Amino acid sequence: MAKIKERGKSGAAKNYTTRNQALKKLQCSLSDFRRLCILKGIFPRVPTSAKRANKGSSAPASFYYAKDIQYLLHEPVLAKLREHKAFAKKLSRAIGRGEWSLAKGLEERRPVYRLDHILKERYPTFPDALRDLPDALSLLSLFALLTTTPTPTSTLPPTLTINCARLMAEWKLYVMRSKCLRKVFFSIKGVYYQVEIGGEKVTWLEGYAFTQHVPTDVDFRILLTFLELHQTLLGFVLFKLYTDINLVYPPPLDQAKDEAGAGYGAFTLSEKPKVLSAEVEAANVAAEGEKKKVTAREVKKGIRSIANASTSAMVVDEDESALPAASTSNAVEEEDFVVQPSKSDPSSSSALPTFSTLSSNSASTSSLNSLFSPYTFYISRSVPRQTVEFILRSFGSSRIGWDVATLGEGADFTDPNDPSITHVIVDRPVIGANGFVWSEGGETSSSSSGSKRAFVQPQWVVDCANEARLLPTGEYAPGATLPPHLSPFGKGDGRGEFAADSRNAGLPEGEEAALEEVEEEDSEEEEDEDAEMTTTTTYPPALLAASQDPTNELLLHAAELEAEQLSTPLAEFEESLAKATKEAVKTGTSKAKGKSVNAEEEDLRRIMMTQKNKKLYEKMEHGNKIKSDEQINLERKRQVLKKEKAKKDKKEAGKGKSKA
């Protein structure tokens, strides 16, 4: 006989639990529960049947996995939060009674929790931590820009902002030291950076250094919980990155230079000293002398020597113009193993990396890292110094100067008349008799220095970094109309899918003109074809979703972010959205249907109604639907009668003509 299942003990009712049930089970407040969920990475779930998950009740509720709540029962942070609750009660009681010595002792023994074990659970490997780093960097850079002076409306401690600024400076110091910056993009919201570390691409957004004001209508409790987790995560990642390149972490900070505005120059990067290296070498030599058996290392050396001999013979016999055999053997000796071609796949031997391909790849990377190394830059006071300095030093520049009185300490040189200056980065032109004449402090100009200098705007530095080559400086002169600043985060070659305007930059003049004529003819043919037959236009995913539901603000915001990432102008975006909305209405895929409010707001209003008002509202909707259906049926009948009358009139007119 089959066992009868008890209601609410299996299925969705057992797998899910509501938020109120979780609070009762954990015996904590709602704020502590939110903090635990943020730190542990637990978020609400949407069951397939909310009624079954809520044990037959149709009341609205937030659901969580029952297993996630069960794991929270054994969380050490939860125990610390309970201890803190008891500590707060004892402290308030001691202060109320005037027992100041007891209150001081309680304050010294304040319970503090750590997040080390949570980071080990959420990020078991280092690449996992790197993948979650963009959110951490964006949030820390946001808090680093906030004011450090306490105001009556500010609830943020100054030490929090200082700590975020210090972590971001340490992160940028590592990027400048390792030369891992790959892409930069100036947008309306701020500056997008992308670095490549260990095969993982990390992209974050950093706002412009304007005067910031802490808003009063933002729930900082949620943001501060995320910030607490991200600060700990970035500290662990920086420790790993610094120790991998044998640097001391945290790097020492010179307070005097930091107060003088030195920025990155206030930190000192120092390598770790090698302790007991001679003793370790002596111990290794003694251990090797005691060993008499053949080890696996010696076997590998013998295999490598055989492989070296065969490789050198192949290099001499097959290709006389190849690299010398000595260099090839050295390359093989540096490897830990010898790569053998696959016997089952003959074509795999040609796909194996060779020393020539590896050397070419390393040469391209080194050329990218040393893009600005041969040049000397002077930053004008009209340019954001820390942003430009970070980009220049990340791509190899070692000599940068600026005006110390206005931009702070840390410059390699301060004299604007230095003859070694090759590029002057200026954002405000001063027009003189002979065209553009740069003047820093009203004392020097391009003609008085007697040296050849290139005067460029900051966009030249970013475009050169994204293109991985030096671009002509003529288009970036002060006061000139700059070329389009395209997003490098698009599809294809990394320059964006709208980067076709500059694809013919390296062609000769004749070929470029001929290619432009061909493109014009192709565009004219495409216009003729579009006039003859209507074709469907392809839109980006977020724009297409927003066109199908134009009243949804979330979809519209996502479409705007997508257009900004693709470097689409605002006018073009609005035109495309209007066109896509019209097409959606014609094809019948639009979800708007003339509603004044979106579906989410209507659902929220319906939730807040009483049962009586909800029934009245449903009756009204039902009556309106019947009326609209009747109107639609009458309109259809009118159209049918109109068509029949037109046919009848046409037949009568034809009969009259035949009689005449």
Strands, helices and their partners?
Layout: H1 12-15, E1 16-18, H2 19-26, H3 30-40, H4 50-53, E2 63-65, H5 66-72, H6 76-97, H7 100-108, H8 116-122, H9 126-131, H10 133-144, H11 158-178, E3 181-186, E4 191-197, E5 200-206, H12 220-244, H13 255-259, H14 277-290, H15 296-318, H16 325-334, H17 348-351, H18 355-369, E6 377-379, H19 385-394, E7 400-402, H20 404-407, E8 423-425, E9 431-432, E10 435-436, E11 454-456, H21 458-467, H22 509-532, H23 541-548, H24 553-565, H25 570-587, H26 599-608, H27 611-659
Parallel strand pairs: 6-7, 6-8, 8-11
Antiparallel strand pairs: 1-2, 3-4, 4-5, 9-10
Helix pairs in contact: 3-12, 6-7, 10-11, 10-12, 11-12, 11-19, 15-16, 23-24, 23-25
Plain-language structure description:
By secondary structure, the chain is α/β, with parallel strands linked by helices. Among the domains are: 116-266, no CATH class; 278-340, no CATH class; 373-489, 3-Layer(aba) Sandwich (Rossmann fold); 541-598, no CATH class; 609-655. The chain is 53% helix and 6% strand. It is built from 27 helices and eleven strands. The strands form four sheets. It has a four-stranded parallel sheet with strand order 7-6-8-11. Strand 4 and strand 5 (200-206) form a beta hairpin. Helix 10 crosses helix 12 (220-244) and helix 23 (541-548) crosses helix 25. It starts with 11 loop residues before the first helix and ends with a helix.
